[in-house]
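Handout, page 2. Input:
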Amino acid sequence: MSIELIVLDVDGTLTNGKITYTKNGDEIKSFCVKDGLAIASWIKLGREVAIITGRNSPIVERRAKELGIKYFYQGIDNKKEVLEELLKELDLTMENVASIGDDLNDYRMLNASKRSFVPKNASMYVQQIADEVLESQGGEGAVREMIEKLIQSEGLEENYLALWH
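Output:
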């Protein structure tokens, strides 16, 4: 079965995990543009992307829209439960899912997915259950690295590269 859906955690995965507040109380997050290009490419290949995050942030919602991510869930305590509901909607199974997360709140989702990835600086507990610990840290290309590994293992390299030349 092929991977049709990738599920992304945000803090510590799409970002470096740091949350900065301005004196006005505004939240600041930084995203890796390399991750964004890989996500957009995955979508152009006709595959799906979902963000399932424990926190609420208009910044993350904006980033999801910029990248064309249709499935966006925030303020989620049980990520696996939300993923199971999404799979029903998409008529997919866990055999079609690759996920990436970095901490204990990702544990059940990572454990249930066909393929699971964690950034280099993830919690040791999720590193122990992940299929692959990436070389990149969260917010520094970890999602890009995961997607390119999936591109290779799914035999999509020719189509992936054709998007850009």
